[in-house]
Amino acid sequence: MTRILLVEDEANFGAVLRDYLQMHDYDVTLQEDGLAGLAAFRTQHFQLCILDVMMPKMDGFSLAKEIRQINSDIPIIFLTARSMKEDLYQGFEIGADDYITKPFDSEELLYRVKAVLKRGDPHPKSPQEQEIPDHFSFGEFEFNHRLHQIEHKGEKIKLSPKEADLLQLLLTHSNDLLPRDKALQKLWGDDNYFNARSMDVFISKLRKRFRPDARIKIENVHGRGFRMVVPEES
């Protein structure tokens, strides 16, 4: 049974969400503030976190950062009563897998939980996917996809799992077009608005990673996708 950590400071609302998810065969632990949520995460094993943003003692974004320090791969869904773009972008920067603005109905949450968990399920790789290398050398950089790590002149830089997957996909299409819809379907499982904005944030983060080597660029191909420009081997 999938175990979910739900951290929601509105007790009645949290209980409704917990009971609804439990009706659909999820094992849900409910905590009512960020510190209690962090304590639960440190002592128990979960496959998904659902975090309210505005909470006492520790807000959802701060809690997510602490959780990412413990487990960088666990999916996180944020719940918020606010729809400010700044909140949305902050959630993306932390590595949100989904972001739901209140009010919403329980069925919508259930759908999003299933979608996020499905993205994280290990699926057998096709023969074509098995041929994708885990290690790339380009410009001044080395990239190890398995370790989620790039290296530049001896400095090792850790990437988030989503950054690493996106970079691997870009590099397999280096100096060629990576269609936007292909990347969204492969890495996010859906090409909806939320996922498209999330991908744009990760593209921006990767661009910053490669600033030390001006020859490496990730170009927008208007209306079509992205092209990662890397120096051709001589």
Secondary-structure map with pairings?
Layout: E1 3-7, H1 11-23, E2 27-31, H2 34-43, E3 48-52, H3 60-70, E4 76-80, H4 85-94, E5 98-101, H5 106-120, H6 127-130, E6 135-138, E7 141-144, E8 149-152, E9 155-158, H7 161-172, E10 177-179, H8 180-188, H9 193-209, E11 217-221, E12 225-229
Parallel strand pairs: 1-2, 1-3, 3-4, 4-5
Antiparallel strand pairs: 6-7, 7-8, 8-9, 10-12, 11-12
Relevant terms:
234 residues, 5-stranded parallel sheet, 4-stranded antiparallel sheet
Structure description:
The protein is of the alpha/beta class and 234 residues long. The termini are far apart. The protein has 9 helices and 12 strands. Residues 122-130 have low confidence and may be disordered. Strand 4, helix 4 and strand 5 form a beta-alpha-beta unit. The strands form 3 sheets. The chain has a 5-stranded parallel sheet, sandwiched between helices. The protein has a 4-stranded antiparallel sheet with strand order 6-7-8-9, covered by helices on one side.
